[in-house]
Fold this protein.
Amino acid sequence: MKPGEIVISTAGRDTGRYFIVISVVNNRYILVADGDIRRIDDPKLKNAKHVKSTGYIIEELSIWLAEGRRIRNEDLRGFILDYQKNEEAR
């Protein structure tokens, strides 16, 4: 998994929710946020085994994370909503 990738939680109270990978802590844990319940300033530490990758990486967000730019919670919510709308259209 890479920063900027959209994942779906498969375990815990947040099962079925979409998140965006903010950073990779190590080969076992990642930090995720959705801009709603889990905000960018307080990402959730999640076991990588407990999320399913969608295979979709938001390139723009990936670059922002690498550059250390300020990211707003509205940006995260917008990226997730756009992804969900595209998935529904398929």
